[in-house]
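Quick question, first post here. What does this chain look like in 3D?
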Amino acid sequence: MDTYKGFQIKGLHLDLKAQTLRFSAMCDIVRDAAGWGYNTVLLEYQDKFPFKGDLAALAAPDAMTEEEVLEFVRLCSSLGMEIIPLVQCIGHMYYVLMHDAFAHLGEEKGVFSHMHAFCPSEPESFTFYTKMADQIMRLHPESRYFHIGGDETRLSATCPRCAGSDKLDLLNRRYQDCCDWVIEKRYKPVIWSDMLLTHPELLPAMKNRVVIMDWDYWSIDRSNGASHLWGIEKHNPESWSATHQTLFEPVVYRVKPHLLNPFPYLRFLQEQGFEVLAAPAARCAGDPNFVPQSFHKRNCLEAVYSAAQAGAMGVVVTSWSLRRAPWPTTENSLIAAAMAMENPGVSDKEIDDVFSDFHFGVADARLAAIPDLLADAAQKTTAVVDVFTAGLAYPTGDMGHVEDLPTRLAIKGQKLIGNTQVAQAYADLKFDAESALRTLERARPSTPAQQYRTAVWHWAAETAKFFGEFVPVLTEARLGQAQITRLENALHDLRAHNTKILSPLLTEYALQSDDRARIGIFLDYLHSMK
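> Answer (accepted):
Ran it through. Tokens below.
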């Protein structure tokens, strides 16, 4: 890292769509982040922006007020943190298309269970996008960048309006139109990388138009080779198209074909003349709903190391709220990334000491290990049967709530009944949770913030312990009324604990959806067994 000269952008992602943060919590988060060295917030409002006029229906009950948005902008400015607003330009439009008045803007459902994308053949869908983006831009006049999203856009093969049109041509035109419109508004467009790398024929039209945010939530230690490749099989380059072989085979492998370079596209995109940001994750798909997976910290560190070596303009750590692990449980990854951005040679011990002191009031390696202990134990159980993510599906009617029937069926679909592997896996989870609780006795929180963070980790360990006891009972073919009543009472106790811990973080509306995902689905499941 002798050539490391620092990053222009050191960012973190605030995703408001599912686990909506209280305004006071948002402000506390950016104050902490600024103290760690972050200078940018990627702000994804989705339905939490105070849309007005003919867009007013998009604003959720717990959307921010205009006054709060303006106050948040002022706070970030005072902290030296720039906001990059994000408004999806084509996909991930559930919160728009669920409204009858706007459903005509969407494609058919295609591979999704609900309408996912604006139809690129519907001219009004582009106009609608500009209306959304314009309202947000008006409250962010000092921002230099504007993120148009664009990821995971799997357009429907059966959309009647798109019949006879080439899907890539349609996607290319939508990206270009959105970028050009954003540039006319005097912002620099930012786009996610996945669709451009899956279809590299789209790249030439994007040159000099857009900053590419290269997201890879799997790259970890250099010897691991867990990096993600877009649109191609990792270890079978002979199956790739000629274009992918020419462009990517020289850059993705450390040892062909089994060992991948970390964040393999960063240097390629730099060499193609793009401005590039690396985007790891502190919280993403597959995480248990009470603590993120343990590899996230390594993923964030690898993003910093890879971005520094490639000469990228920076790193933005993403954090996806639908996964429901509370924000403080992601902070070990955020602290690690911030420290590495200041000094890529920072040691694990230095990171652990800062994290433990910040959360628990004492630099203690055993306390610093609690996130990994709980995450690893939870991952072992999900390999047998996953109940933690059963309630994390997008509903068709409201972004904030979880439907009863699909989630009950999701739990039943885990084949709990008669699963003999569950008892040992969840006994191990309980054992590790009890170990974490004993370790937490070493904490010495002295400030209200440390006391709250310590309480969150107690909650995470208690939640793990509860499921360690609860899930094995569900493997029985029949439950007696006394068993069901006991389990229901235990769930109600856990509900009260959840509310106490999460209330300072989440809006009341978000707490309702959180309760559905964490507790309601299990109560429904027990009710179905009566």
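Confidence is low (pLDDT under 50) at residues 394-402.
The chain has three domains: 9-228+274-341, 229-261, 372-528.
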